[in-house]
Amino acid sequence: MSSRPPKTNVPANTAAKDKAIDLSAWREKAQVFESEIAGAIVGQQRVIRLLTISIFARGHVLLEGDVGVGKTTLLRAVARGLGGAFERVEGTIDLMPADLIYYTYLGEDGRPRVDPGPVLRYGSDLAVFFFNEINRARPQVHSLLLRLMAERSVTAFNREYTFPYLQVFADRNRIEREETFELPAAARDRFFMEINMELPDDKEVRRELAFQTRFHDVDSLIETVSPDILDFETMDSVARAIQDSVTTSDALEAYALDLWQALRNPISAGIELEGVDMSRLVQGGASPRGMSYLLRAARVSAWLNGRDMVVPEDLREVFPESMGHRVFLDPIYELRRDDIIRRFFAALFDTVPAP
Fold first, then answer.
1. pTM of the prediction?
2. In this structure, are 74 and 187 located in the same domain?
3. Has residue 132 got a pLDDT over 50?
């Protein structure tokens, strides 16, 4: 089994800086980060690991789940541990794109004033932009967010603003449908991962959440997380170093391509699901960008586990959250999406042989 180092087109000065990064020390920082978050957010180890992978892959994250399971608390704790300038907006039906860029008011002298909005307030130092209840915002707002996520830039006041350190976190609850707007496919595809956060199964954890008073004061709970564990200004260089140092073998690459083909054309792989017409199940998705995100996540997973080569378990570890929202089903199956996608992925891994 052979391996090839990934090609890189980063400038020479950037590459030299990346070589100076001690990835072993950064792995220890990642472990401290996970431990600090887990101390405040109990029973969510897998979700915390997936968020850590996204941070070290420099990918945006959409967190979804029932009301009150701690999505906002978790993302606030992650932002505190990551460090850097932080902004938060609440999704509402009357929120407009301009509200993210600026706000107007009357000054004490009675004259109109214009101040920077949450996107521009910290300028290029903005590190975390947290969009709470994103599905309550209008499509016009989603379009602006798409530009912000895709290019880390916006145009306002006849100039372009860039945000080199930016990472976007968003959450949505999946219960309420009134006065909500579904994210368009283009916006969802820009999220590195969509992570589902469930109520913990462990009865002891549930008892703690219900009866331990420290979990009842959210602000105090978040303050238990050490601030600025990760150096947000260095994260891009760390992410590049991880991607450059973790390799993929020929066999692993062939396996990933076989998964991709089966995902787009399940009939060709012999995949069958009870009660599903496989010839019409998948309408699109699983793009080259999606596959590149999957491999980025798998490399970080391997690195966090102390390996310098991706193995099939790394792909399977991040596959549902990296690819689930990039598979577009026939509308007749959308109402059963969660169950069908879960069974589809299980059949995919059972059918496609791993190296």
1. 0.91
2. yes
3. yes
